[in-house]
């Protein structure tokens, strides 16, 4: 039986019931819904809107309903539409008319708003924890590979030699900012909408500050219409998920490339790989590819909610029933992707010799050769041209820069002397970097030391 049936002279059709119902997906909010209802019942009793005895009975019965749901003893129905009306129907069935008093001074509009905010507060904390585990894994790997030399790339072309630790710490910074973004998002999510009513507040003498304290919200939303009408906090959450997934996808793309025979920089563990149904030799990086693919899915969640909200007049509209699926999907996808990626990262094998061998070729010491001539007093642009001609000469001869004879060096510039060979060795190129945040061994150790120093920082 519909709790809003009084206005209607005709029952909804079964097809309309099915189309209108959200219980199929919003039932996962049962904990948050009961949590909000318990706080609301306590407030009603405290304010004398219902008796203390009635409030206590409601709170006690809601606790029992929660336990029964946890134990799998409750079956939700499409007829009751959503999680709010399902729980209220069960409550009323158990304690009669007293259960009907729970919804006093409340609307499903502020009820669902508080449910989603409670849910996202929990999800954000979980995501922050999993991101911290990933950051710890990156730090661990970086500490193991401070001396591991590899090619650095721009345009996917070998550019300058770097260390694997330096490369990993670049991702460490990206995921650190992701964690900060979720922390910022939590601040805007941690605001109470309950007590707003349908859109205009209520005539009852409620206590929203009490509700905020009971439910652990740091602030009360000051405008009731805004409290029920907007989902910007949910959009922000999915945006944070999308950015974090983008960073995961970029890293996965590199792991996929690095695990190919053409690169052969890493080998992904068998436990995170799959084979081919037809080609016996294949070992596919499917977990990394799935994360890369699921990134598009989370982007879709973001576009979905943005589009749902873009044309809505004030205040609540039924369109907002569709807000939960993209929120749930983005949260679930990000959490699963972060967890599997961290496990995959910690079990992969790094082929350090292949990385260093690749760094020795490809003329990645060309910039350092140009800097060598700059140190002799030549303008950088002239040095750039000289070294460019040298690289072309070496390509045509099929040799590396450091394989040129001194006579050949001097044919390009009389400023070259024997110390050029040490200057353009791969490890010398890395060691020579002086700027803060560079790939030099000392700089990478300093970056790791700063991470250790900041571990006490709360986000």
Cα gyration radius (Å): 31 Å
Helix-residue proportion: 55-70%
Q: Care to count the β-strands?
A: 6
Q: What is the number of helical segments per DSSP (H or I, 4+ residues)?
A: 20
Domain Argininosuccinate lyase C-terminal: 363-431
Subcellular location: Cytoplasm
Domain Fumarate lyase N-terminal: 6-300
EC number: 4.3.2.1
Core attributes:
single chain, mainly alpha, two-stranded antiparallel sheet, 6 strands
Provide a descriptive summary of the structure in words.
The protein has 459 residues and is mostly helical. The chain is built from 20 helices and six strands. The chain has helices at residues 14-20, 23-26, 30-46, 52-70, 83-95, 97-100, 108-144, 164-189, 208-215, 224-229, 232-258, 286-309, 324-347, 352-360, 366-375, 380-397, 406-412, 420-423, 426-431, 441-453; strands at 149-154, 157-163, 191-192, 219-220, 266-267, 349-350. The chain is elongated and about 100 Å long. The mean pLDDT is 94. The strands form three sheets. It has a two-stranded antiparallel sheet with strand order 1-2. Strand 1 and strand 2 (157-163) form a beta hairpin.
